[in-house]
């Protein structure tokens, strides 16, 4: 049930494939999003600003993520940081390219959904002159795209994501990605973390530290087959990252129920961990409409900014 993106054979073909993808997304996603939303919906991506301006006492309703704990401890009164509204921002995309992201239907694995989501976000941001950078990660940093604006930057990003990942045989550890972001992104920025969050434990703390310095938005990509097994008799299930194989009897109703319950427990633990890190979490299934997901995210972020 796993699939991977087809590799291309030359830089020219890479560019052609990426260009076709951007044209399709501009027509079917960006134009639809513009039509569904009234006003300047792009302001939903600006967050609270990027430049520190002042401190003030905490008031009910303030976002607790912006409490300055050092000042609070000294004065024994909660204080929150305020930031100037910077209309030209820098956004970073921290992208999970591990082999578990190749899972899904052959026509629409998580890796393809990742590419479409990233290209759309980058397109929305860069068309206002904002700069977008990216870190491609597969248990090691594959590539870093320094922040730039313009359509060519979106094209570079789409081209790199359409190439298959290079690492294999090891379980993912997302803490390395978040630590790299901490050490690399110096100026306060808007950061999108996009992953299926199938990882070794220990990533919660570096994600929380990242959220203390930046405006962080997490998007979890998932496939329905990861939570519900089809009734298909005895099948071989393979771990995409380690290659470990296991024979399972999917005709066993009790086994399918245990599989579902275990998946639900993992999802609940993930949501709690991201919440504890002080990060907003949005979810996108391989079967979801990308426009509706972005519409939901923009609407919720606008409500939080009021």
List the helices and strands and how they pair.
Layout: H1 11-36, E1 51-57, H2 69-75, E2 79-84, E3 90-96, E4 104-105, E5 108-109, H3 110-126, E6 131-137, E7 141-148, H4 151-162, H5 175-184, E8 190-195, H6 204-213, E9 215-222, E10 234-238, E11 245-249, H7 253-276, E12 280-285, H8 290-305
Parallel strand pairs: 3-6, 3-8, 8-9, 9-12
Antiparallel strand pairs: 1-2, 4-5, 6-7, 10-11
Helix pairs in contact: 1-3, 1-4, 1-8, 3-4, 5-6
Task: Give the C-level CATH assignment of the largest domain.
Answer: Alpha Beta
Q: What level of helicity do the residues show?
A: 25-40%
**Whole-number total of structural domains:** 2
- Helix/strand class: alpha/beta
Shape: globular
Q: Output the number of helix runs.
A: 8
Rg computed from alpha carbons, rounded to a whole number of angstroms: 20 Å
- Please provide the count of β strands: 12
Major beta sheet summary: 6 strands, mixed
How far the N terminus sits from the C terminus, by CA atoms, comes to: 43 Å
Q: List the uncertain runs.
A: 1-8
| Percent of residues in beta strands | 15-25%
Order of strands across the biggest sheet? 7-6-3-8-9-12
Q: Could you tell me the mean pLDDT?
A: 82
């Amino acid at each position: 049930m796993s699939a991977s993106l087809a590799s291309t054979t030359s830089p020219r073909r890479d560019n052609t494939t990426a260009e076709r993808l951007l044209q399709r997304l501009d027509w079917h996603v960006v134009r639809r999003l513009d039509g569904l939303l009234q006003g300047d919906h792009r302001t939903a991506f600006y967050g609270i600003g990027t430049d520190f301006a002042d401190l003030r006492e905490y008031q009910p309703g303030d976002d607790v993520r912006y409490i300055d704990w050092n000042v609070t401890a000294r004065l024994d009164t909660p204080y929150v940081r305020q930031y100037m509204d910077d209309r030209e921002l820098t956004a970073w995309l921290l992208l999970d390219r591990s082999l578990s992201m190749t899972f899904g239907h052959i026509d629409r694995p998580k890796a393809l959904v990742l590419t479409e989501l990233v290209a759309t976000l980058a397109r929305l941001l860069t068309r206002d002159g904002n700069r977008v950078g990216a870190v491609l990660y597969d248990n090691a940093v594959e590539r870093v795209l320094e922040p730039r604006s313009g359509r060519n930057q979106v094209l570079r990003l789409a081209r790199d994501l359409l190439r298959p990942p290079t690492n294999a045989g090891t379980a993912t550890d997302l803490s390395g990605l978040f630590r790299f972001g901490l050490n690399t992104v110096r100026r306060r920025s808007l950061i999108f973390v996009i992953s299926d969050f199938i990882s070794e434990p220990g990533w919660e703390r570096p994600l929380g530290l990242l959220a203390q310095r930046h405006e962080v938005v997490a998007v979890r990509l998932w496939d329905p087959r990861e939570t519900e097994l089809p009734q298909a008799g005895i099948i071989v299930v393979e771990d995409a990252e380690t290659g470990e194989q296991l024979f399972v009897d999917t005709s066993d109703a009790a086994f399918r129920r245990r599989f579902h319950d275990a998946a639900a427990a993992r999802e609940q633990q993930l949501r709690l961990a991201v919440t504890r890190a002080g990060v907003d979490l949005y979810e996108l299934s391989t079967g979801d409409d990308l426009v509706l997901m972005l519409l939901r995210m923009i609407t919720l972020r606008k409500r939080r900014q009021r």
